[in-house]
Design brief:
CATH architecture of the largest domain: 4-Layer Sandwich
Distance between the termini: 11 Å
Bound molecules: fructose -6-phosphate
Strand order of the largest sheet: 3-2-4-1-10-9-11-15
Oligomer: single chain
Strand content: 15-25%
Largest sheet: 8 strands, antiparallel
Structural class: alpha/beta
Helix content: 25-40%
CATH class of the largest domain: Alpha Beta
Shape: globular
C-alpha cells in the first residue's frame, strides 16, 4: 500500500526521501515520486516501477540548505500506475502526497472543474491540492486554507502538503491511514511507519485519527476537531532491523528460515512450565466471555480459521471466524458476552480495522493479535498481544502466519486454563508440544534441496488443489494462497472430504493435488479421500510422516506426536514449495504483481 515520507530541515533531502521510501518498499507499490521546495525553487521527480527508476531520474540533483520535502510510493487505487497518477500531485504552486481514499473526491473534483481547474491525473489525491489552492485564495493563511481543505475530506487519508506560499512549512493530516512525526533537533520527519526514520529521528509522535497541523523548523503545531492540542513525543527505537537479506535470495526465504527463532520469541515469558501467561491481559479479561468472534483477512484469516478448531476443542468456547470485508456489511448480531478478536500482521488492514470499530461501537470487548506495535488496530483494541515476528518484508506472509497461529494456540490454552475447561494433564501435554515447535520449524538442507528438485515438475498443469481436514484445511487454504500469490498459478485449498462433492470432476493427470496427511489426525479419512483422487489419475504430492504408496511425489515429515507439530512442519513444506516453484518461474517473490503488503484501503 502507499507509503509516505517527509523531511524538513537543512540536510540533503533527496537521499532522506529515497532511503525512506526504500524502507517502505515492503508495503508494495507501482510508482514513486518526490517533491522538494528550497526557497523559491521547486523540484519534482516521478517514476513508475521500482525505486531505482526514481533514483536514476534524480541522479543529477542534490538539494542544498534548508528546505521542505515529501515523497511517496503509490499502490494504484484510482487510476492506473502511470507517472501522471504518481504522487506528489501538483497544483499551480503546491504539492501533495496522500495515502488512503478520499470518498467524496468526485464531488469535489466536479466543483473544482466547474471553477475551471484542470486535472492531470485520474487520482482522488489531486483534488486535495487543487482544493487547497482554491481555499488559499480566500483564507488569510496557508494553514487556514489547509485546515478548510481537510475539513472537507471524507474517507481515510494520511496526507502531506507543501506549498510555495509557505516555503518553510509542511502541512499534515491523518485520518484512518497511518502517519507519524519524527524529531531530531530542528529536523522534522514524517513517515507511514517508523522504519524510514529509525537512525534519523530520535523521538516520535504517532498521529491519531482526526489530527492535523503544520511543521516548521524545530516546531510542530497539532490540532484536532477541538482546536490546538498538546502532544507527548516518545523515544524512537534504535533497533533497526536491517533490510539486508542475510545471504538469502529473497526476504520471503529469509523469513521462512527464521521462523524457528521468532517462534521462540513469541513464546518467551508466555509459555511457562505448567501454564500460559499473557502479561498483556488483565487477570479478569475473560470474565463474562462465553463466545469468541474473530475477524481478519487473507493469511491472517487462515490462522483465525485454525484457531476456531482450537478454541472449541481445547477451551470449549464457541468461536466464529469471519472475513473482515464480509463482516463489515452483513449487519451482524453481536452480543456483549462475545470477545472480538482481530488478527493482522500489519495492524493497518482497512477492512479489519473497520470491523473492529464496528464491534467496539456494539460494545464488545476487543483483543488484537498483531505484529506491529502502535499500529492502528493495536491502538484501537482494548488489549493486544504482539506476535513478535519482527518486520516481515516479503509480501507473502510466512512468519507472521506461524506466529499468529502460535499466539492463538497459546490463547486457546490460556482461556481453557482461566475457564477451567482444560485439565492440568492436557495443559502439560500441549505445553510440551508447544516447546518443541521451534525445532520443528528448522529448515534442513535436505528438505529444501528436495523441494527445489521436485518443484520443476509443478510449473504447469491446470491447477493445484491443497487438501486437508480439520486444522489442516485452513493450512491447505494457506498453502494454496501462498502458491497463487507468488507463482501466479491457480491454486485452491479444499477440505479433503469435500472433493467428491464437485471438484473431483477436475481430476486428471494435470491436476496437482497437494495432500496434507498428518498421522496424528484423521489419517485414514484423508487417505481414502486421496485414494479417490488417485483413482482418477490426479497427480498426488503427499506430505505425511507415513509413506503413501499412491503418491507421485512424497515429502516425508518427521514429527507426528501432536497435530500442531505436524501442522507447523507441513506449513514450512508448503511455503518452500511455493517459493521454489515461483523462483523457477522467474517471479519476484518478495513483491508479487498486483499485491501490497499492507492493504489500507477497502
Ligand atoms: C498473504 C497476505 C495477505 C494478508 C492480508 C491481511 O500472504 O499477506 O493475505 O494476510 O492482506 O493483512 P494483515 O495481516 O496485515 O491484516
Amino acid at each position: 500500500m502507499c507509503g509516505i515520507v517527509g523531511y524538513l530541515g537543512k540536510k540533503e533531502k533527496k537521499e532522506i526521501l529515497l532511503d525512506g521510501l526504500q524502507e517502505l518498499e515492503y508495503r508494495g507499490y507501482d510508482s514513486a515520486g518526490i517533491a522538494i521546495i528550497e526557497g523559491d525553487k521547486l523540484y519534482n521527480f516521478k517514476a513508475i516501477g521500482k525505486l531505482k527508476n526514481l533514483r536514476e531520474k534524480t541522479k543529477a540533483y542534490e538539494s542544498e540548505g534548508f528546505g521542505i520535502s515529501i515523497g511517496h510510493t503509490r499502490w494504484a487505487t484510482h487510476g492506473k500506475p502511470t507517472e501522471l497518477n504518481a504522487h506528489p500531485h501538483l497544483g499551480a504552486y503546491s504539492y501533495v502526497v496522500h495515502n488512503g481514499i478520499i470518498e467524496n473526491y468526485q464531488e469535489i473534483k466536479e466543483e473544482l472543474q466547474a471553477d475551471g481547474v484542470n486535472f492531470l491525473s485520474q487520482t482522488d489525491t489531486e483534488t486535495i491540492v487543487h482544493l487547497f489552492e482554491k481555499n488559499n485564495k480566500y483564507e488569510n493563511s496557508a494553514f487556514a486554507a489547509f485546515e478548510k481543505t481537510i475539513q472537507r475530506l471524507r474517507g481515510a487519508y494520511a496526507t502531506l502538503l507543501i506549498t510555495e506560499s509557505a516555503p518553510d512549512t509542511i502541512f499534515f493530516a491523518k485520518n484512518g491511514s497511518p502517519m507519524l512525526i519524527g524529531f531530531n533537533g530542528d529536523d522534522i520527519y514524517f513517515a507511514s511507519s517508523d522504519t524510514p526514520i529509525i537512525g534519523k529521528a530520535t523521538e516520535v509522535y504517532y498521529l491519531e485519527d482526526g489530527e492535523y497541523g503544520y511543521a516548521k523548523e524545530g516546531e510542530v503545531k497539532l490540532f484536532d476537531g477541538q482546536g490546538k492540542k498538546n502532544f507527548t513525543k516518545q523515544a524512537l527505537t534504535t533497533d533497526k532491523i536491517s533490510a539486508q537479506k542475510d545471504g538469502y535470495r529473497f526476504f520471503m526465504e529469509k523469513e521462512i528460515y527464521e521462523q524457528n527463532h521468532v517462534m521462540s520469541e513469541t513464546m518467551m515469558g508466555r509459555v511457562l512450565d505448567n501454564s500460559i501467561e499473557f502479561n498483556e491481559l488483565d487477570a479478569n479479561f475473560f470474565d463474562g466471555i462465553s463466545a469468541i468472534k474473530i475477524c481478519a483477512c487473507g493469511t491472517s484469516y487462515h490462522s483465525a480459521l485454525t484457531s476456531a478448531y482450537l478454541f472449541e476443542r481445547i477451551a470449549k468456547v464457541r468461536c466464529d471466524v469471519e472475513i473482515a470485508s464480509e463482516f463489515r456489511y452483513k449487519e451482524p448480531l453481536l452480543t456483549d458476552d462475545t470477545l472480538f478478536i482481530t488478527i493482522s500482521q500489519s495492524g493497518e488492514t482497512a477492512d479489519t480495522l473497520e470491523a473492529l470499530k464496528m464491534a467496539k461501537r456494539a460494545g464488545l470487548k476487543s483483543l488484537s493479535i498483531c505484529n506491529v506495535d502502535n499500529s492502528s488496530i493495536v491502538r484501537e483494541s482494548d488489549a493486544a498481544i504482539l506476535t513478535r515476528a519482527g518486520i516481515e518484508k516479503g509480501v507473502a506472509s510466512t512468519k507472521a502466519f506461524a506466529t499468529q497461529t502460535m499466539v492463538l494456540w497459546m490463547l486457546a490454552l490460556y482461556v481453557g486454563q482461566k475457564q477451567k475447561t482444560i485439565s492440568d494433564e492436557i495443559l502439560k501435554r500441549e505445553i510440551d508440544a508447544m516447546l518443541q515447535t521451534p525445532k520443528v520449524l528448522i529448515v534442513t538442507e535436505k528438505l529444501h534441496a528436495k523441494l527445489y528438485r521436485l518443484s520443476k515438475r509443478y510449473l504447469h498443469g491446470h491447477g493445484f488443489f491443497f487438501i486437508g481436514r480439520d486444522i489442516f484445511f485452513p493450512l491447505a487454504l494457506e498453502g494454496a494462497l501462498k502458491l497463487k500469490e507468488i507463482s501466479y498459478l491457480h491454486a485452491e485449498g479444499y477440505p479433503a472430504g469435500e472433493m467428491k462433492h464437485g471438484p473431483i470432476a477436475l481430476a486428471d493427470s494435470e491436476l496437482f493435488t497437494i495432500a496434507l496427511m498428518p498421522k496424528s489426525m484423521h489419517y485414514d479419512k484423508i487417505k481414502s479421500n486421496v485414494e479417490e483422487l488417485s483413482a482418477r489419475d490426479a497427480t498426488i504430492l503427499a506430505i505425511s510422516p507415513k509413506p503413501f504408496e499412491l503418491a507421485d511425489d512424497f515429502i516425508q515429515t518427521a514429527y507426528d506426536s501432536h497435530p500442531m507439530l505436524e501442522f507447523f512442519e507441513m506449513m514450512v513444506v508448503t511455503q518452500l514449495f511455493a517459493l521454489e516453484i515461483s523462483i523457477r518461474l522467474g517471479n519476484d517473490v518478495d513483491m508479487p504483481r498486483n499485491l501490497a503488503k499492507s492493504v489500507t484501503v477497502e
